[in-house]
Design a protein that fits this description.
Elements: H1 3-53, H2 61-64, E1 65-70, E2 76-81, E3 87-96, E4 101-108, E5 115-122, H3 136-139, E6 148-149, E7 152-153, E8 157-159, E9 171-173, H4 179-204
Parallel strand pairs: 8-9
Antiparallel strand pairs: 1-2, 2-3, 3-4, 4-5, 6-7
Length: 207
């Protein structure tokens, strides 16, 4: 290989290395600049999701969500005070669907048993199937359902539509063709509420 060819290869290598370094630095800079805005957007979306769970979409978060309790295990509980003075307790949910994470918020009446509302979302579920969890048509039937049967926690069963006859106070229809996502919603609710029940038990039985 002659000297001219070696110099040409060296120039190409150095040029590529410099461009990669510059690009990486620019991306890091842009990421830092945008991070506060991204965090603010996440905060707004979280607040809107909480409000949707208590049927107050597009209302003022600060007006209705005035208290947040964080337990010993750092489990947050949002407290919503409605215009009539009644309170709803909102629990954040997180779980796993078919293709990625599921999350949402579940609002309970002040008896701690009856669902007042829910709001679900997902990262990568299939459009027209599992992605339907984010639609109001899926979440609406949860309202008025109970997590308990005869004072015993049983959570909510998310069943295949059209199967099993009439739904009980502890059952809702899942998504047609979205069995795994529906099961993910069911597991997410049960596993999360079990954590809160355990937290409540431990707090009331501290020495």
């Amino acid at each position: 290989m002659d000297k001219k060819k070696r110099n040409g290869d060296l120039y190409t290598f150095l040029y590529a290395a410099i461009m990669v370094t510059i690009t990486a630095a620019l991306l890091a800079f842009v990421s830092q600049i945008l991070k506060p805005r991204q965090e603010a957007n996440k905060q707004v979306e979280m607040q809107q999701s909480i409000l949707r769970a208590v049927h107050l979409a597009d209302r003022s978060y600060e007006q209705y969500i005035k208290d947040t309790v964080v337990g010993v295990q750092r489990l947050p509980l949002y407290i919503c005070t409605l215009d009539d003075g009644s309170r709803k307790f909102i629990i954040p949910l997180s779980g796993k669907g078919l293709w990625g994470p599921l999350w949402g918020y579940l609002a309970l009446d002040d008896n701690g048993q009856t669902i007042y509302g829910v709001d679900f979302d997902h990262e990568a579920e299939t459009p027209g199937l599992g992605a339907e969890v984010s639609r109001a048509e899926f979440s609406a039937p949860f309202r008025g359902k109970s997590l308990y049967r005869d004072s015993t926690f049983v959570s909510i069963s998310v069943l295949q539509p059209g199967k099993g006859g009439a739904r009980t106070i502890n059952q809702v229809d899942g998504i047609s063709g979205g069995t795994i996502t529906s099961r993910g919603i069911e597991n997410m609710i049960r596993e999360t509420i079990e954590l809160y029940i355990k937290e409540a038990y431990e707090q009331t039985h501290l020495p």
